[in-house]
Amino acid sequence: MNAPLLNRITLSAHLEERLRTRLKSGRGGLRLPTEKELAQEFGVSVPLVRRALETLEAEQLVESVPGRGWKIPADAKEPCVAILYDLDIAAPRIFRAHLLRIQESRRLLEAAGYRVSIYLGENVSAPEPPTKLACPQFLSDLNEGRFSAVICPWAYPDPAWTGLLKEAGIPMVGFGLLHENMVSHDFEAYVRLAIEVFKQRNRRRIACVGAVSEWNREGYDRQRFALTTRLLQEAGFEVEESWVRQDWHHSVPAAGWSSFREIWTRGPKRPDGLLLNSAMLWPDVQQAIHSLQIRMPEDLDVVISRENLRDRARREEKGVTEFLFDTRVMVRKAVEMLLDLMNGRPLVENRCFVNAWQRAETTAESQADTPRPSVSASDRSFALTRDPQFH
């Protein structure tokens, strides 16, 4: 006797949940299919659809239009977050860490209960800024109001589209100093770790090689090299002006090779330590070291910064010390900032530098047999909690 009633209740609750999922993908003011069409789509009766819609109406998720059916309330905000990556992911020298930013951003946002749309562009990383946003679908959906917030693993913040976000009141958090609200790794912390390594190895003369983009906001790349030189000199190292190369971009073929060869062959005095701020340049620098028959670590010690990609096979190499940055920490902070903005909470800081560096040996040992974690209970309640390590 009770089974049919139980089945009807279960079916009704199931239908309501499926309709809620459907509504999350709809914009304010969007008209729903007719009750008959919904009944056919979900394989239930029209009265059951009507009861489910009446329940959702009480939750203010839909509203009835006399004689015209049902629609989403005009003032409803779509709980959708856009992930914008305006580079070509098929490019030969793509940053794999950028892909990790996309994946981890999506995981955390979905765990927090948000629908996610990923927008990919066709720009390639280059010394010059892109002339325009290379993802027309993002601009189209922006005009259509299809998302309510943006997290940006990479995109040049041209006012042509960032101004549209501001006008629409859509918050955005990006990775790197180009953005008004941003998260980046703490480069100064990396340099200080490298200094400790060079001291332990009794190095005295340090060279620096890295990439620079002239269009980088406020000349941050050049400021970063000035900071590097100052910290090294304050620590008692000898740093000649010709040993600090900052005029190369990783998109230029053999950029690191040319840069390091010029440092090593320029004069009678040579560095015994090399600080590399871009892992993309390391293969080129490595070839130059081999071609010049430099012995490591007898002649040279190298410190490299890398993003921590857990699926990357590490190889021990004499004279090379790697410091890995945990990108997931940076992504978590960026998502936290975005959720604060979406929920009207004031930001503690809108330009955040995260220190998540570890020696490669330590990281490799701690993660060697650790499987990738699944979405935990703490992730599911992410929008309501804060990680104390960021405060």
CATH architecture of the largest domain: 3-Layer(aba) Sandwich
Overall shape: elongated
Q: Portion of residues in helices?
A: 40-55%
CATH third-tier fold name of the largest domain: Rossmann fold
CATH superfamily of the largest domain: Response regulator
Order of helices and strands: HHHEEEHEHEHEEHEHEHEHEEHEEHH
Strand-residue proportion: 15-25%
Tell me the structural class: alpha/beta
- At the first level of CATH, the class of the largest domain is Alpha Beta
Widest beta sheet: strand line-up: 4-3-5-6-7-13
Number of domains: 3
Quick one: biggest sheet? 6 strands, parallel
Plain-language structure description:
- It is elongated and about 90 Å long.
- 40% of the residues lie in helices and 18% in strands.
- The protein is α/β, with parallel strands linked by helices and 391 residues long.
- It folds into three domains: 2-71, Arc Repressor Mutant, subunit A, CATH 1.10.10.10; 80-184 and 328-355 and 370-390, Response regulator (Rossmann fold, 3-Layer(aba) Sandwich); 186-326, 3-Layer(aba) Sandwich (Rossmann fold), CATH 3.40.50.2300.
- The protein has 13 helices and 14 strands.
- It has a six-stranded parallel sheet, with helices on both faces. It has a six-stranded mixed sheet with strand order 9-8-10-11-12-14, with helices on both faces. Strands 1-2 form a two-stranded antiparallel ribbon.
- Residues 1-8 and 362-391 have low confidence and may be disordered.
